[in-house]
Amino acid sequence: MGDDHDDVARFRQRLGLPGLIDVHTHFMPERVLRKVWAYFDAAGPLTGLEWPITYRHEEDERLALLRSFGVLRFTSMLYPHKPSMAAWLNAWAADFAARTPDCLHTATFFPEPDAGRYVREAVEAGARVFKAHLQVGAYDPNDPLLDPVWGLLAEAGIPVVTHCGSGPAPGKHTGPGPIARVLARHPRLPLIVAHMGMPEYGEFLTLAEAYPEVRLDTTMAFTDFTEDFMPFPKAEHPRLADLGDRILLGTDFPNIPYPYAHQLHALERLDLGTPWLRAVCHDNAKTLFGV
Questions:
Q1: Which pLDDT does position 44 carry in this prediction?
Q2: What is the DSSP string of 101-158?
């Protein structure tokens, strides 16, 4: 990974950045991560694509790689696919954050009767960011069981990175409509739309324009891999510039089919200027999380 390390270092130097803040990285219990990797290896129905895992390493090596790239803060995005799983994942994530000071303490939830309780417990334990995955979880974000969750996160001002777009394959509750109904009830919810909302890019940009606390992360967007099957419309580039204070670097490390540096180069070739890149790769997240 020497070339990748050097490419990332040169990128940071060109921008004069002290480092990067990546709001969409995955760390989870090993047996769960191995199942995720096996799913990608099998080109599962939510991908249907050849998807080699570039950073298939043990946890310590993955942490060392991120730090060698100059990533100052990152997340441990994890998510349940069934009931009675989220609280256990949150316990693991709390322990991971305690032993990994540069990780933003991450938590998750699922529509179930005790969701409000364990989300409150996670917040009280110091969770800084939550992850919701409407595609994998296959749940409606408007499920009444989640009403106390969205309300608590909106009141506490804790961001929730949400896979709510219909890429790489649509789900029953993906697309801008379901999450827009959540925002209509909780307009101050700090929602971070994962993957720039692919492929409904324009619709999610419209949500960000309508709600000041809505942001988008860049995870896999603009890369050669994604541009081949869900390209970002060039006509929307001016809107990216206008929303430059609400776009955050995300990568999906380690579950990406290309080197880490490629995500950075994909952003750079948008040609939206150094101040925009600095904001996206560092300053916006620094402000949001107060790091």
A1: 59
A2: TTEEPEEE--SSTTHHHHHHHHHHTT--EEEEEHHHH---TT-GGGHHHHHHHHHHT-
